[in-house]
């Protein structure tokens, strides 16, 4: 946690309180406020703090909105690269960048053809590491790092699957509408919808046809 993390979350919380005083907030830095409300904002002011403090441009801001526990709006904002993905449930994801680009996941029905991404091997414990290793061994290629940026790349059709663990609601709430609005799926490792009581595993695929194969391997 840095002072920038805390200052950014305070600013976002203040804006929400001003415009939507009856809404709840769950944030990485300051915890829960009215988390039992029908509408709850989920905030990660700087996703990728390690990248931020070491000058790497892959950190981002994640803002998600849950309605009765279901992700309905998501924002991935990459300030250093000036890229922003906005997802709203039932609508096509929007993407803003100085370089253009269309948010659309690409077809990839088998793991043998897939570009797999993961934030860090340090996410895995004795139970999850062998299951991830099985998926990694079956994939065409695996890249590390990127935090939320990897999910944005999946929504642009540049990555086929992202597998992470030990994820908190502020890590995934914004991702679900963005990925699903680009034609992909974002679930836990068992293929179940992500909810506040999920187990911390996250699996995003650009092609829904890939989900059964990779879920089977991650199930162990």
From TrEMBL:
It comes from Falsiroseomonas stagni DSM 19981. This is Myo-inositol-1(Or 4)-monophosphatase. Pfam families: Inositol_P. GO terms for molecular function: metal ion binding; phosphatase activity. Its cofactor is Mg(2+). Mg(2+) binds at residues 28, 44, 46-47, 171. GO terms for biological process: L-histidine biosynthetic process. PANTHER family: 3'(2'),5'-BISPHOSPHATE NUCLEOTIDASE, PHOSPHATASE.
């Amino acid at each position: 946690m840095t002072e920038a993390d805390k200052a950014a979350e305070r600013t976002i919380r203040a804006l929400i309180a001003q415009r939507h005083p009856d809404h709840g907030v769950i944030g990485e830095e300051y915890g829960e406020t009215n988390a039992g409300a029908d509408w709850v904002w989920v905030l990660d002011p700087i996703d990728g703090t390690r990248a931020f403090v070491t000058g790497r441009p892959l950190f981002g801001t994640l803002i998600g909105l849950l309605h009765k526990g279901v992700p309905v709006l998501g924002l991935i904002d990459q300030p250093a690269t000036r890229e922003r993905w906005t997802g709203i449930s039932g609508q096509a994801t929007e993407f803003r960048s100085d370089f253009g680009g269309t948010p659309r996941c690409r077809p990839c029905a088998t793991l043998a053809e897939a570009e797999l991404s993961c934030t860090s091997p340090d996410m895995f414990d004795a139970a999850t590491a062998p299951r991830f290793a099985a998926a990694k061994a079956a994939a065409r290629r695996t890249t590390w790092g990127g935090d939320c940026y990897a999910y944005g790349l999946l929504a642009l059709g540049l990555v086929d699957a992202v597998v992470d663990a030990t994820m908190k609601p502020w890590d995934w709430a914004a991702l679900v509408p963005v990925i699903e609005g680009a034609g992909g799926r974002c679930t836990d490792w068992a293929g179940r919808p992500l909810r506040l009581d999920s187990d911390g595993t996250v699996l995003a695929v650009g092609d829904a046809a890939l989900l059964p194969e990779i879920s089977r391997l991650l199930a162990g």
